[in-house]
Amino acid sequence: MSPTGVELAAEIAVDFPEKKVVLVHDGPRLLEFIGPKASDKTLGWLKNKNVEVKLQQPVELVRSSDGSNAYITSSRETIKADCHFLCTGKPV
Q1: Tens of pLDDT along 17-44?
Q2: Are strands 51-54 and 21-24 parallel, antiparallel or unpaired?
Q3: Distance in angstroms (rounded) separating the CA atoms of residues 50 and 66
Q4: How far is residue 86's CA from residue 83's CA, in Å, rounded to a whole number?
Q5: Are 67 and 85 in contact (CB under 8 A)?
Q6: pTM score, whole prediction
């Protein structure tokens, strides 16, 4: 997960607390390039702001029968979204 994705999820959660925010990452923890303690603190903060974080779950974007966007996680869970942001990449 890029720092941009984590920051964007945090900003949305703070500015629009009524919105459901789901952050999906295929790795074992957020911000893998920093230490585990800082990563765990970030995860706790996001969860405290009601951000749903799904780790170790690659996703696939699909079109629902009603034409809306949905994600299917590797655990076969469907996440419907009004909008989505693809934040990938690794810091140099």
Answers
A1: 999 999 999 899 999 888 999 999 999 9
A2: parallel
A3: 27
A4: 10
A5: no
A6: 0.84
